[in-house]
Amino acid sequence: MKKTILMLLMAGLLVGCGTNFKKYKSYDEYPVYNGEDLELTYSPSGSKFRVWSPAADEVKLLLFDNGLEGAAYMMKDMHRSKNGTWAVAVSDDLKGKFYTFQIKIGEKWMNETPGMWVKAVGINGKRGAIIDFKETNPEGWENDKRPELKSFADITLYEVHMRDFSVSPTSGMKYKGKFLAFTEHGTKNTAGQATGIDHLKELGITHVHLLPSFDYASVDETKLNENKYNWGYDPMNFNVPEGSYSTDPANPVARIKEFKQMVQSLHKSGIRVVMDVVYNHTFVGEESHLNLLVPGYFYRFNKDSTWSNASGCSNETASERPMMRKFIVESVVYWAKEYHVDGFRFDLMGIHDIETMNAVRAALDKVDPTIVIYGEGWTAGGSPLPEEKRALKKNAKQLNGVAVFSDDIRDALKGSWMHSEIPGFVSGTDSLEESVKFGIVGGVQHPQIDYTKPIYSKAPYVNGPMQSVNYVSCHDDMCLVDKLRSSRPKGASEDEIVRFDKLAQTVVYTSQGLPFIYAGEEVYRDKKGVHNTYQSPDSINQINWDNKTKYIDIFNYYQGLIALRKAHPAFRMTSQDMVQKNLKFLDMKTKNVVAYTLGNNANNDSWKEILVIFNGNRRPVGVQIPEGTWNVVCYNGLINPSGVLMQVKSPNLNIPASSAAIMYLAVEKP
Ligand code: CA
């Protein structure tokens, strides 16, 4: 699309170029198509094609024998149909064939596109594939069930990239970098310790969150031997799995079937699956599959007609337009139904409008209300859509059932994401106590928090703790170990870094809300100090599974934290009221110490009163603890959630440097 045509279209100046061309003064005048049969409806007796492109003058369907190369063996003119659509039917059985559409605007034929609703593609995603979806279902798929989930508060998230998980020689896995790696059991590292899905079960997480696994553009699927790495935030086909993660990207069935095998295998292991979805932009703007279908419509523009760029990736989609909203809503529902996906993480959710996110929630509720939705409540740049309409963190109260990442707790614990040398609470920086407390309560209103002090948010932004995703690091920016090392206070040893690490995740796993970790943190993963590893090689990004042996103490500690959280609903309260009633902060005399109690058998906990103390100082501190005898389950970097490390009596307790203490009131037998 040349900018001149786009600008003319936007100005409503392309009048009467074709015989049936209707003048639209703006995109708002485009008719909306509500049907669910857009682009392709296949059956052995025939295929029906329907394209929505109201401003087109002509539309063609092209059919091919090959998914990437060769000329069309058949071309068909599509005819104008209802509500801005163009339709044509082909009565042959087209299974095994490929297709594209071509749109003519004025006198110009645009480049071919497989469309945007396309559900199967040839290699590199340039042509749509006509397949029989029944052939994509693995054996037993009809019996696949989502593992039980009673409350969003019960979720523990594990964010992982397909290659990071399996590609290291120490993974012991066969399907390196593939969906099928998640189907491999009995895999071990060099020392014989469990890796892969068995490791995830040992760890105890409830949800695997997959970095982009829809079809993205940056990895050439015809050159897999190059082992090119990318996070995948460059969407090409939103409704198709990524080809490079399949064993045969040239076979359109393989990637779909193998994605389903992955989901099925995780479900069998009791683990749910979250997809990272990136509807906020496309890899390219003018030549994207969306823009070749309906030029301009799916994107936002600045007043001067240049492409707006809230994504930082040179374009941003326009969820407020009815057909883009319809697309996003139907796309997530499609993944939930066809692939049994259990949750969605919205990349740069702050680009989308609030109405769209609420429509996504409502549509997924109809599929299964336990499907989790969370997102980044921010953007990577300014957007023309007014802030009050966007799904930003500060508007989260208008997003019921949609959670947002808490950058407040993240940067309070580890220090600024932007300045790698600045340490956080766990590395001994004081004055971050209120931010830590803000995270502990899951971002809700709490009478003991001074909301003028948290580093980012100056007011509670959620309706309840289940709207807060608590974390200390993710794929973006330095991973936890690298950040702790690069902000290392003078004289801090590596043993101290380990203490900082454990303290940080102790806060994450005991806070109200949804805890989230970046894969490999439980085995002390680092990325060699690289900030932005989106296209770094495997050598930087891969999880070295031998770390599990070397840092087994850290793994055991993380495992213990997850087990503690799972066993004790007090850490998983479900409402602001509950948090206000049961969570009380203690008045600490020492700086950089945060302590609180969870009382009243909070959320039906078996423990009447729980005491949690975080000492962010790099020296031991003495604290006064509430009256009673306390059974200590976590102390000085050790945790035993099902036993007792020691008993302590009030009023004084020594908390070792950079560590957490968790205990519960010993109830004497009557
Ligand atoms: Ca791809």
Protein described:
Helix 7 (407-414) packs across helix 8 (433-440) and helix 10 runs parallel beside helix 13 (552-567). The longest helix is centred in the middle third of the chain and has 17 residues, at 252-268. The chain is 21% helix and 19% strand. Strands 1, 2, 3, 4, 5, 6, 7 and 8 form an 8-stranded antiparallel β-sheet that branches. It folds into 3 domains: 2-136, Immunoglobulins (Immunoglobulin-like, Sandwich), CATH 2.60.40.10; 152-571, Glycosidases (TIM Barrel, Alpha-Beta Barrel), CATH 3.20.20; 584-665, Immunoglobulin-like. Strand 13 (272-277), helix 5 (322-338) and strand 14 form a beta-alpha-beta unit. It has 670 residues and is α/β, with parallel strands linked by helices. The structure holds calcium ion.
Give unreliable regions as ranges.
Answer: 11-21
Question: Which structural class do you get from the secondary structure elements?
Answer: alpha/beta
CATH fold topology of the largest domain: TIM Barrel
Main beta-sheet strand count, sense and barrel state = 8 strands, antiparallel
Large-scale geometry: globular
Number of helices: 14
CATH level 1 name of the largest domain: Alpha Beta
Give the total of beta strands: 27
SSE map:
Layout lengths: L2 H8 L28 E5 L2 E7 L5 E7 L9 E7 L4 E6 L7 E8 L2 E2 L18 E2 L27 E4 L1 H5 L29 H8 L3 E4 L3 E3 L18 E7 L10 H17 L3 E6 L44 H17 L4 E4 L7 H14 L4 E4 L27 E3 L1 H8 L18 H8 L27 E3 L9 H7 L7 H17 L3 E5 L19 H4 L5 H4 L1 H16 L8 H7 E3 L7 E6 L11 E6 L5 E4 L4 E7 L2 E2 L6 E4 L2 E4 L3 E7 L5
Parallel strand pairs: 9-10, 9-18, 10-13, 13-14, 14-15, 15-16, 16-17, 17-18
Antiparallel strand pairs: 1-2, 2-5, 3-4, 3-6, 4-5, 6-7, 6-8, 11-12, 19-20, 20-21, 21-27, 22-26, 23-24, 23-25, 23-27
The structure holds calcium ion.
The site of calcium ion has 8 residues, from strand 11.
